[in-house]
Design a protein that fits this description.
Number of helices: 10
Order of helices and strands: HHEHEEEHHHHHHH
Shape: elongated
Helix content: 55-70%
Strand order of the largest sheet: 1-2-4-3
């Protein structure tokens, strides 16, 4: 079991986002129409899950690389995937100076790992190994599916909220007894997307903690990832990415939040604070030394 019960936290957060969805369903049409939006959410989940590798790689303008083009990256990923008993993923490099990395793909057989040119120039090989171990564990832990489902449910909630907003402003059909309270509809329309977004971001943060912990176990070197995160915090501040829609949709996959800290509040960040991640890794390293 993970030291910080991140799996249980993720399950609890999923329960919370489903509760928001059911609450909305109880407000509008006595739940008669919520399945339409649920089907939309399933469709969005399936599309994002099956095409997540293409969408993220396209957003970062990444290109595939061979072992001759990226020997250190290739060697590290091959060693780690072999140690985990998993197939070798496809490797990509993004031509940007912003230091970052991400892994994507619906399963280990269809995975891709991408590093930016910035991170390859910033980290030494030991630190890069820590980062790549983290990214591979996102794939092995099925975090792409988790993120896709959370995003789809949040999208359904937002769609329903927009319909509630329209209903509360312009009224609905039926007699007065059947018609919902417009103030209740308006309150739900405003609060539900806010709650869903916060829960979605919290789910993403718990998966980052798990990838840190499991990646450090895979490499056997928590302090290497801690050192990499310190450099990434400074490197991202020097060369942040612009929060375009395409990058925003892929930012939760990256090992570091690619935007300027002032552009994202803590509660709406897809990543935990670097100081907390580093502290947990140092605690994990202490446990390694004690065992």
């Amino acid at each position: 079991m993970h030291n910080h019960f991140n799996g249980l936290k993720t399950a609890a957060l999923f329960g919370g986002i489903f509760a928001v969805l059911l609450a909305m369903g109880s407000v509008i049409g006595s739940g008669r129409y919520i399945w339409l939006f649920a089907l939309l959410g399933v469709g969005m989940t399936a599309y994002g899950y099956w095409n997540s590798d293409k969408l993220a790689i396209r957003a970062m303008h990444a290109y595939p690389v061979s072992e001759a083009q990226a020997p250190a990256m290739y060697r590290i990923v091959r060693e780690l995937s072999t140690a985990a008993g998993k197939p070798m993923p496809r490797l990509y490099v993004s031509p940007t100076s912003a230091p970052n990395a991400f892994a994507t793909g619906r399963n280990p057989e269809n995975a891709a790992v991408c590093c930016t040119e910035g991170i390859l120039g910033l980290l030494d090989e030991r630190e890069l190994r820590g980062v790549l171990g983290h990214e591979l564990m996102h794939v092995y832990n099925r975090d792409i599916l988790t993120g896709s489902v959370a995003a789809a449910i949040a999208g359904v909630i937002t769609s329903v909220a927009q319909m509630l907003m329209f209903t509360s402003m312009f009224g609905g059909g039926g007699n007065d007894e059947d018609r919902p309270n417009p103030f209740a509809l308006l309150a739900m329309a405003l609060l539900a997307p806010f709650a869903a977004m916060m829960i979605q971001m919290a789910i993403s943060r718990t998966r980052e903690y798990d990838a840190d912990e499991d990646g450090a176990k895979l490499t056997g070197d928590p302090l290497a990832l801690a050192s990499a995160l310190r450099k990434l915090e400074t490197g991202v501040a020097r060369a942040p990415l612009q929060p375009t829609p395409a990058i925003q949709n892929s930012s939760h996959m990256m090992i570091a939040n690619p935007f300027r800290p002032q552009d994202v509040s803590r509660f709406f960040s897809t990543h935990p604070p670097m100081t907390e991640r580093i502290a947990r890794l140092e605690q994990q390293a202490y446990g390694f030394r004690q065992s």
